[in-house]
Write a structure and sequence with these properties.
Elements lengths: L3 E6 L6 H17 L3 E6 L10 H14 L2 E3 L3 H13 L18 H5 L2 H4 L4 H23 L14 H9 L4 E2 L3 E3 L6 H13 L5 H12 L13 E4 L8 E3 L4 E3 L9 E6 L4 E6 L6
Parallel strand pairs: 1-2, 2-3, 5-6, 6-8
Antiparallel strand pairs: 1-9, 4-5, 7-8, 9-10
Helix pairs in contact: 3-6, 8-9
């Protein structure tokens, strides 16, 4: 929309109170300039902080109103893969299916590197604690679940449908938003796959994997004149790579640092300090 400005927010990680304070700054700035604010999260809205449920509900409501959206982060992907493996019944009778362009853990294990290192049973034992220990524990607790046994894990259907709907890239007027630092050719592959809905290949799955996990700047550039904005890798303050047209915006709120937003139309940065170290 011509009268809207976009505000990209770094990894929230369940830090709801900090996000609300940052959102207030964003709303005030947009109002002062007579613009409609569109708030975009780079993903990882869940895990580690205490209020993943509340953050998720806020973005579900915001997306319904057309004021908020979220890119898929690696923590959302870990949660979906863990629930799909250990509680597959949660995905029955949902409006959305597990995204074909996301790896399942069974697919990952089938790769030679995993099969040569451990048995399927050992792999399962590692996976049981992987998401839980990386902040999934705090996410489950925000839903009132205090068990490390996957049999007891559950999320509301509308929340699962929301997470299943998240895309690995969003295109704004002047900006591409991804969670991590993907190579430009991987962005092109993913955009083409999402646009054409062709059969998903292993190459496309690997491309999506890079959009939510890669930390290396090698081969990373803005695409088609747009600036690439990502989170995933914590930095002390917003980090710019001017030649590559890349901005990193995760400033480590969950670890007691800051939550940061960037307005693409005005090239303006906003931040709030974390109330405490959560994880």
């Amino acid at each position: 929309m011509k009268n809207s400005w976009h505000y990209v927010v770094g990894d929230i990680h369940g830090c709801y109170q900090e996000f609300l304070k940052l959102e207030t700054k964003i709303l005030d700035h947009a109002k002062k300039n007579k613009k409609k604010p569109i708030i975009i999260s780079v993903g990882d809205i869940i895990d580690r902080g205490p209020c993943s449920k509340e953050v998720t509900e806020h973005f579900i409501d915001g997306r319904r109103k057309g004021t908020h959206d979220v890119v898929l982060g690696n923590h959302e992907a870990m949660m979906l893969a863990s629930l799909q493996l250990f509680k597959p019944e949660l995905f029955k009778n949902l409006k959305r299916k597990f995204p074909p362009w996301l790896y399942t853990y069974k697919e990952r294990f089938s790769e030679k590197t995993f099969k040569e290192k451990m048995t399927w049973e050992a792999y399962l034992e590692n996976l049981k604690s992987l998401w839980f220990d990386q902040g999934g524990k705090e996410t489950l607790q925000s839903y009132g679940i205090y068990s490390d046994d996957p049999k007891n894990w559950v999320l509301p259907k509308n929340h699962l449908n929301f997470f299943l709907s998240l895309k690995p890239v969003l295109i704004l007027k002047k900006t591409l938003v991804t969670h991590a630092l993907p190579k430009s050719d991987n962005i092109d592959r993913v955009l083409n796959a999402l646009r054409t809905r062709k059969k998903v290949t292993g190459e496309i799955k690997e491309a999506v994997y890079s959009l939510i996990w890669n930390r290396s700047m090698a081969g990373v550039n803005g695409v088609k004149g747009k600036t690439l904005v990502s989170g995933h890798t914590p930095v002390s303050s917003i980090k710019r790579y001017k030649n590559q047209k890349v901005i990193q915006i995760d400033t480590g709120c969950y670890s007691g640092e800051r939550l940061t937003a960037w307005c693409s139309e005005k090239d303006k940065v906003f931040f709030v300090r974390a109330q405490k170290r959560y994880f």
